[in-house]
Amino acid sequence: MTDPVAAPTPAQPEKANLIDDFVDIFGSPAKVFARRATASPMLPFLIVSVLIIGMFIVNRNMMAPIMDAEMQKGFDAAMKTNPSLTPAMMEQSKGMMQKFSVVGAVIFVPVTLLVLALVAWGVGRVLGGTLSYGTGLLIASFAWLPRVVEAVINSAQALMLDVGKMTSHYQLTLSAARFLDVSTAAPMVLGLLGRVDLITLWVTVLFAIGLVAAGKVPKEKMVVAGIAMWVLGSLPALYGAWRAS
Q1: 194 and 92 Cβ atoms separated by less than 8 Å
Q2: Phi-psi domain of 131 (left: phi exceeds 0; alpha: psi -120 through 50; beta: other)
Q3: Per residue in 148-161, pLDDT tens?
Q4: CA-based diameter of the chain, in Å?
Q5: How far is Cα 122 from Cα 133, in angstroms, rounded to an integer?
Q6: Tens-place pLDDT, residues 8-61
Q7: What CA–CA distances, in Å, run from 96 to 89, 91, 101, 103?
Q8: Which SS3 state, helix, strand or coil, does residue 175 take?
Q9: C-alpha 167: how far from chain center
């Protein structure tokens, strides 16, 4: 008699602590998503949110000239379409916006991650994945870690470049929009080329990998998942550019 052949044991995801995950996401993202697929997303969500908000606070004063220039451009456009607005009213609004910018960041960052989690969940489900919303939030949280790198790069640029002469945040991005004349380029063109950005593409790739490794989307649909996330992520920027046109 021959011995019965034992059924192969399914491979178990390797274990690692959260610090390892935050390091490995830059070199082995598929492993991070695979081993965290069923873990709670709350700690990565909170850590990434705090890191990005913290970098916003650190960069706030350095980026103030660019933020002021963009606000002024928006005020000028608003005053053209609504003659009842006065410079004094605009200046008051500007002061309020500056005062509550940190509060806005504290709200904006986590809400954006929660929305991106919903988008990732929807894309994953449509493409045949079996992920929950919690898995979508975990994917979104880790996929947004390059935004922390982006903030650090912006800090370095602000220290080395004369940001006082800049009038748009596109002039600090690693995107195709950086090379355009922001004073003459159409807002829609800036918005679209602003999405052709090294950090944004990095984030998109991480979303695609996460949807496959953690969301169980078929591997052959990884490229489709990435394209879908990039396109859907572009809609708010393009809508804002369209309104500014």
Answers
A1: no
A2: beta
A3: 999 999 999 988 88
A4: 95
A5: 9
A6: 555 555 566 888 899 999 999 999 999 999 999 999 999 999 999 999 988 888
A7: 11, 9, 8, 11
A8: strand
A9: 22
